[in-house]
Amino acid sequence: MLRERVVEGVREGYVSMQGLIAHGRGECFDYLIGEETIPPALNAERAAVAAMLLAKHPVISVNGNVAALVPGEIIELAKLVNAKIEVNLFYRTREREELIAKVLRKYGADEVLGVGDDASCTIPELFSERRRVSCRGIYITDVVLVPLEDGDRTEALRRMGKVVIAIDLNPLSRTSRAANITIVDNVVRAIPNMVRLAREMRNLGRDALMKILTDFNNDENLGETIRYIIGRLTKLMNEGVVIEFPK
Ligand code: PTJ
Predict the structure, then answer these.
(1) Looking at ligand 1, which atom is closest to the CA of residue 100?
(2) pLDDT number for residue 206
(3) Could you tell me if the CB of 187 is within 6 A of ligand 1?
(4) Is 19's C-beta closer than 6 angstroms to any atom of ligand 1?
(5) Looking at the domain assignment, is residue 46 inside a domain?
(6) Exposure string (b/e) for 211-243, b if CB count within 10 Å is 16 or more?
(7) Residue 136 sits in which domain range?
(8) Which of 17, 66, 93, 148 most suits a substitution to test ligand 1, by most atoms within 8 Å of the C-beta?
(9) What is the CATH number for 203?
């Protein structure tokens, strides 16, 4: 069903062809973690919500795949943490920007940044189309959520001093390693989990939120994720789930 939604997005013209390949890559890693939210992912989701609730100008960056998979949930999360929503595309065309904004408005977004002339600020030292951002959004944000991001922009955003929260099923990607908080989970589980956590956590005081954030260590958490995958595969192997082929 998820695959069909991404394919439908391609047919409607707002998901890029490369988005299909990226989705397949994500599916592969999702099989390795067992297609569920694993404990280190939940830890990262909690830290991410704390960072967004503490932020002055949080922004959620939306691309084609995200618009196809979790449009309504993105808007719900943005409302709960008071974040702006910005369209930011790797394979940018005016038509795709506008189609994505239309999808988001259909799901209830009041304001969508990064469309057309609004994307008039530039992320320094970045050469993809992703360098073009809204001067009221990603350019001035202190905390930015980037689901399905590329490594170059994650590194460029870090160099600008921003706190970067990535959602990426590949724990080994450059994005995963460069982000401040990496959520190794499918966006279709990560965003609804964050919505639930935001509802629970938004009445916490700043000190409690800060403690959640400072207790989180991204390198350790990524290590936990890889240990989880190794443990899971080892268990499957030992339990004989792996088919033995005749010699
Ligand atoms: O809409 P555009 O033009 O901005 O293009 C979007 C894509 C995703 C095509 C573009 O950003 C891209 O090529 O991204 P990458 O560099 O391929 O990175 C995508 C990462 O997201 C990969 O590491 C995938 O494993 C991961 N991924 C794919 N699907 C999901 C995912 N992570 C979480 N949830 C998913 N559903």
Answers:
(1) 1
(2) 97
(3) yes
(4) yes
(5) yes
(6) ebbeebebeebbebbeebbeeeeeeeeeeeeee
(7) 11-222
(8) 148
(9) 3.40.50.12640
